[in-house]
Amino acid sequence: MNPYRILILFLVAFLLNQESGAQTDSSSKTVVKSNAMKPVADTIQLYKKDSVVKHDPRKATRRSAIIPGWGQAYNREYWKIPLVYGAIAIPTVLFIYNNDWYKKTKFAYEARYKAQYDKDSSDLAAIDPDLKNLSITSLQTYRNSFRRDRDYSILFFLLAWGLNVVDATVFGHLKDFDVSNNLSMNLKPQFNPNTKSSGLMVTFHPKKPEKKLYEIR
Fold first, then answer.
1. CA-to-CA distance for 110 and 127, rounded, in angstroms?
2. What is the pTM assigned to this prediction?
3. Which of 19, 36, 52, 96 stands 20 to 30 A from 122 (CA)?
4. CA distances for 112 relative to 98, 102, 145, angstroms
């Protein structure tokens, strides 16, 4: 066969091959473009973990330290607020009562002391009527007693305030504690061959949080 004819046939075959390849590429690009023009999917399924705002125990601590009962309100334990204010109100009332009588007995004692030892009876008329018939020894005893009770009421007030903060802090930490059905507990008998003693083993198996399915249409 003429070599020129072979060369011509080879060139024709090469051009036909290139043309078919170009058509294939253009068709694939057309498919890609057509697919790109279509929506990515009619429904996109996203698996997402539960997004829950976490309870912050530090906020409950700070708030209850500033205003009694505020931390309990943050923990949504509103029924504790009257108890908190009741626990704080009792030492407050006792402080006012004891401090008032401490001042009265102190003044009466000092007036009696001046009248007895300094011969100055100018303050005797200003003594409370309930204390005029008491001796100087009795006034001193009552003064010391009311002063002691007043100091104790301050301590009880601070203790009640501190318990309010502790309560808000503890229950703030327990707010996110899992007490639902996702927590399983098993009791199993156990025997220790080394000590030859039997016992009871408690095992907890917290379940993993399930992923929720969200659909975006």
1. 10
2. 0.57
3. 96
4. 21, 15, 18
